[in-house]
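TEACHING EXERCISE
Course module: macromolecular assemblies
Task: Read the component lines below, then compare them to the predicted structure of the full complex.
Student: A.B.
Group: 4
Components provided:
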Amino acid sequence: MKAEPMAAAGAGLPATTGRGRPRSAAADSSIVETVLRLLEEGTTLGELSMERIARSAGVGKATVYRRWANKDALLIDVMRAIDEPLPPLAGTSVREDLVVLLEVIRHRGLAKRSSAVMRNVIGVIQSSPQLWRQYHDTVIRTRREAMYAVLRRGMRTGEIRDDIDVRLLVDLFAGPMLSRALLYERAPLEDGLSEQIVDAVLEGVRPSGHPASRRP
Amino acid sequence: MKAEPMAAAGAGLPATTGRGRPRSAAADSSIVETVLRLLEEGTTLGELSMERIARSAGVGKATVYRRWANKDALLIDVMRAIDEPLPPLAGTSVREDLVVLLEVIRHRGLAKRSSAVMRNVIGVIQSSPQLWRQYHDTVIRTRREAMYAVLRRGMRTGEIRDDIDVRLLVDLFAGPMLSRALLYERAPLEDGLSEQIVDAVLEGVRPSGHPASRRP
DNA sequence: ACGATACGAGACGGGCCCGTATCGTAAGTA
DNA sequence: TACTTACGATACGGGCCCGTCTCGTATCGT
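Instructor-supplied answer key:
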């Protein structure tokens, strides 16, 4: 994977006027890419220092501080960099759309860099709530709302029970995939897992003929 | 909550012979309790330093190093300290037992100190795999195996489908609760959530009469 | 009483980090 | 060309931390 262009990273300090030597776009992406690489290699957010980032990126400290005022500001842009748009949903069946959305989580869990970011950000919910909020708003919320929409549509079309809280439904589908992605370094996210989860949650895990089943 | 006695903490260095002044049990528990309090207050594992721990516990650094060789050794004992035995399972119905096991997760998620530990340890899977393994083996594995047992029993008694991988079943039940406990500081772990999850996963979220349902 | 060990406190040398400033140089605009 | 800004490198004072060691004191076995 090569360094994506990722637009102008430094949201903190604007590049003022157009005079003088322009900011190096290569430095931008080198810094962001280096942070992702370090996290991917197992570095903890706490072990990440501006000094180490600059050193690893082959860049002067001033070049980093010229773009970001502190580590949190840099990390926020790093999180923006790994945000990828959701694939389009076919919209034909709820099952298919749910599988697509779970596949997104599965692939992000398999990608070391995104799973490392997610695990690290979770550990920082209390200590850097602003960083967490940024991650939640850019990465989590979008996917969650997409699943809301699919499930609500399913309630209208009769594909999904309408007597269960939509937020609980989201967790029933996403939770199993998320916990597998989070709790293991080499996550057991095998092919076909999305379909297995979706089908099992849709159908239920009680045998058809069991007396306690709500189906006659 | 007061400092529990928690047995002899220092697994690292044995107290050699019985001569001389004995180790202070109060220091033992004060140190462990202080670590838990700091984590509970939002301190990151990376921000925890032996120096800060000693200072916060009102203890000399030597007193800490006399018991634990380094931070990881201390943290391993801290994790042992929050390990609580599972409640007995009634064994009458699979549903009841699953609810009990999910209630354990729910209460641990609501308790700030255990959820803080869990979130922090997750962030350290790659950087301190030995610490993670300790947490996994003492805290996670036990509960997971208890759920295995319940589900396998359910397969024998006909309360649970036997055509789904038991490991997947565990994640279907535990995943929703875990992801809620991990992804939010004030986790939405309301009363009755365990029952809702268990029942929804057992029954399925497809309406009874839906054409795609596997029930005729 | 006496020797042994633990205690809290803190000094110690060495290390990494913070955020800023200053080099000489490079790459743009006017 | 003159001016302006960015570049990598590195020095700076200040801070926290590591793990060890040394105080003077406390609390045990013998």
